[in-house]
Design brief:
The protein is mainly α. The protein has helices at 2-6, 9-19, 24-35, 39-52, 55-79, 106-122, 125-144, 150-177, 184-197, 200-223, 231-255, 260-284. The longest helix is centred in the middle third of the chain and has 28 residues, at 150-177. The termini are far apart.
Length: 298
Amino acid sequence: MIANILTANFNITVIKFLQQFSNPYLDKLAELVTMTGEQYFSIAIMVIIYLCVNKKLAYRLGFASLFSNSINNLVKGIFKVPRPIGTKGVRSLRLETAGGYSFPSGHTQNATVLWTNFMKNLKKKWIYILGSIMIVAVALSRLYLGVHRPVDVIGGFILGTLSMLIVNKVLDFEKSSGSILVLLILIIPMVIITLINGSSDLYKQLGAALGFFIGYFIESRFIDFKESATVVHNVIKILLAATGALFVELILKAILPHGHFFSVIRYTIMLLWVTVGIPYLVDKFKLYKEEKYFNNYV
């Protein structure tokens, strides 16, 4: 019954309706928009906010993104809905972003987590407007590109919103209780989902989550760096974070054996470099100024 709803013909009708307006310019625009729903985009935004704007907001973005992606993989594995790729009358573009099952849309879910977090924590009218536009745009781009059905993007929006609300509620409780162990409410389900699913991507993500969790504890308890800095210092921080993480990835990949366990270790250390290593350098070499931004919102 559910499978029939998820793959019903009206879904394909909507895709064909959107694709009747296709042209090379819209193709490029759709591909550009859909890139903002990829997890790499969310990670880049999170790192910039963490190092340069407001680390508390970045923690909410990071934990929500990682938790949401685990839930997405769990639901995809439960329903196992094939993508509309190859359906008669549907053309599909940017297939490199269309691996795995179709329901729910990971891109739409990522965009929803990112922008609803901004909406909830910043509470600015322009953020509500921009965020709403971007979520809808990413959802439409997935339909236009022929890699998802309407029901997929609706499901992604719902799960993204729920993930954001759960993570923010957990972090609010952690803040009021003063116990970082509260965050295990997020980490333990991710461990279970990873062990059940067994995909290499989830093991890498689990490593990132563990690095984020450990880094959150170390930085908040022992470093507490200041995010605000000059433009030059911000550029230095971002370059150090990117090049350092790449260096760690290459070195550990060369010296550690292959396997899921070592992927977890590798990504844990990479995230520790960003969440602890860079803050330590910022504090040690005073790559900051006293002003802080957005701290009233989270």
